[in-house]
Design brief:
The protein is an alpha/beta fold and 169 residues long. It has a single domain (2-62, 78-166), classed as 3-Layer(aba) Sandwich (Rossmann fold), CATH 3.40.50. It has helices spanning 7-25, 38-50, 68-71, 102-114, and strands at 2-5, 31-35, 57-59, 90-98, 119-127, 139-143, 150-155, 161-166. It is globular and about 45 Å long.
């Protein structure tokens, strides 16, 4: 069984939260980076909604994962692309779901390999709250608690939708 979550409402909340944080921090020209795959879809949408004039970056964190030696390489690894300098920039890092914090840690490690940003604002569409590392989003479309037999999946990019799936336990 699969249930659809209201994507437009989540995107509106994410946009409003990002606008608030950017205003509070006085950031007027952030660089936007999406984590593949869902984060890249969201970066595309948020770049347009926020009216950013610069292309967004795309990270494939496969080589930065802390479980790389156990799970091996994803057969669909593609190069990361950051069409801007990260040194001294205010970065918006965006992903579809945050759970343990390990994907975000890997993404930040990769970003720092490109240069030292002035700041990183973390935005996620869904916060599952099951942290293994002390990493929290600055803005999230929605906090969600899943049962052990459920998972959440972003599908897209056209149409973009988020599904709550029953795994059958």
């Amino acid at each position: 069984m699969t249930a659809q979550l209201e994507i437009d409402q989540l995107l509106d909340q994410l946009e409003a939260g990002l606008r608030r944080i950017l205003e509070e921090r006085g950031v007027d020209a952030p660089a936007l980076i999406g984590i593949r795959t869902g984060g890249v879809w969201l970066a595309d949408i948020m770049s347009k909604r926020l009216g950013l004039n610069e292309p967004y970056g795309e990270l494939d964190i496969s080589f930065y994962r802390d479980d790389f030696s156990r799970i091996g390489l994803n057969p669909r690894v593609t190069p990361s692309s950051l069409p801007f300098d990260t040194e001294g920039r205010d970065i918006i890092l965006i992903d579809d779901v945050i759970m343990s914090g390990r994907t975000i840690r890997a993404a930040m490690n990769e970003i720092f390999d490109y240069g030292r940003p002035a700041s990183i604002i973390l935005a996620t569409l869904i916060d599952l709250g099951a942290r293994e590392l002390p990493i929290q989003p600055d803005v999230s479309g929605r906090a969600l608690v899943l049962e052990s037999h459920q998972r959440v999946k972003l599908r897209g990019p056209e149409p973009l939708r988020i599904e709550l799936q029953e795994t059958g336990q």
